[in-house]
Write a structure and sequence with these properties.
The chain is of the alpha/beta class and 296 residues long. It has helices at 27-34, 50-59, 77-83, 99-105, 124-128, 146-154, 169-175, 184-190, 233-243, 251-259, 263-272, 286-294, and strands at 46-47, 67-71, 88-93, 112-116, 135-140, 162-168, 193-201, 206-207, 214-221. It folds into 2 domains: 14-221, 3-Layer(aba) Sandwich (Rossmann fold); 230-294, Helicase, Ruva Protein, domain 3, CATH 1.10.8.100. 33% of the residues lie in helices and 17% in strands. Strands 4-3-2-5-6-9-7 form a 7-stranded mixed sheet, with helices on both faces. Strands 1-8 form a two-stranded antiparallel sheet. The chain starts with 26 loop residues before the first helix and ends with a helix.
Length: 296
């Protein structure tokens, strides 16, 4: 999509059935002003529902003493909401086209710092500085890199104290899954923290409308940190990936094939971990995966 966007929704439009759409959250007006259009390749869907922005800030538990890392600031609707509550907002945007509008919008707000960066490559510790040990990550994410961003945050040397993000609803369900419906994604997130879906979000609260239903998700990292030491995490995920490599197969067969080990050796290993070799990977808890790796 290119060119200047000029879209007007009349007052009776169904776009207005979901609550208050304030001038500060109407992206097509701001896009028109700067001659911009959302990039489908970057998964850009701007939030236009003011009450949902408030729900995101509520889910992030942002207070006047808190620092927030916003991922995907876009045109700044969520940034403005966060700036009303937080002591500091580091607003990260990868698309350089939006950096000038963002900096113009928040030029008179010293608590907002606009940073052009790819969050997957950024040095979050350096970016957050003195707040690196206690910040909240918030964002309306492009759904095609949801998993990568969540892992980037949770596995970071300086992980956030709390994460509040929009995700595709079906992905959210996979993340919060419990036995007997666990997945590699569920284990990968839950080993670092406790995820929950705060609320479902209709497509109408975004512009352009996504073709999928969304959810506001919160992830609260474990207070004591992940149960796997940093030096053991590569081995942990190697075992978990192998376990889920053959869905619906017995765990002994999946591990044997995925790790290139003899079935008899795998059976003895599972016995040490007190896990029935006939179980499926989907039935194992995170604690059982941890115990399995510890007793390998």
């Amino acid at each position: 999509m290119g060119g200047i966007v000029r879209i007007v929704y009349p007052a009776h439009s169904e776009q207005f059935r979901y609550g208050t759409i304030s001038p500060m959250t109407i992206p097509y007006q701001h896009l028109d002003r700067f001659g911009l259009a959302p990039k489908k390749s970057l998964g850009q869907n701007f939030m236009i529902e003011e009450s949902v922005l408030g729900r995101m800030a509520d889910a992030a538990e942002i207070g006047p003493d808190d620092a927030a890392l916003e991922i995907g600031a876009g045109l700044g609707a969520l940034t403005a909401c966060l700036a009303e509550r937080a002591r500091r907002v580091a607003a990260v945007e990868i698309d350089g086209r939006y950096v000038v509008p963002l900096r113009e919008r928040f030029a008179d707000q010293p608590r907002v710092e606009v940073v052009q960066a790819d969050i997957l490559k950024a040095d979050i510790g350096a970016m957050m500085g003195a707040d690196a040990g206690a910040y909240t990550a918030v964002g309306n994410l492009p759904y095609y890199i949801t998993t990568a961003i969540i892992r980037c945050l949770l596995e970071n040397t300086h992980p956030p104290r709390l994460v509040a993000l929009t995700v595709q609803y079906e992905v959210g369900l996979r993340i919060i899954a419990a036995p007997p419906d666990m997945s590699l994604l569920a284990v990968s997130v839950q080993v670092y923290g406790q995820p929950e879906i705060v609320t479902r979000l209709a497509a109408e609260v975004f512009y352009p409308r996504p073709k999928v239903e969304s959810a506001l998700m919160r992830i609260r990292p474990h207070a004591a940190g992940p149960p796997i030491a940093p030096e053991a995490r590569a081995a942990f995920f190697r075992v978990v990936r192998a376990g889920f490599s053959q869905p619906r197969k017995k765990i002994k067969n999946s591990l044997s094939a995925g790790l290139h080990q003899e079935p008899e050796a795998v059976v003895h290993w599972l016995a040490r971990a007190e896990i029935d070799p006939a179980r499926r990977a989907e039935t194992l808890t995170v604690d059982e995966w941890v115990r399995m790796v510890e007793r390998q």
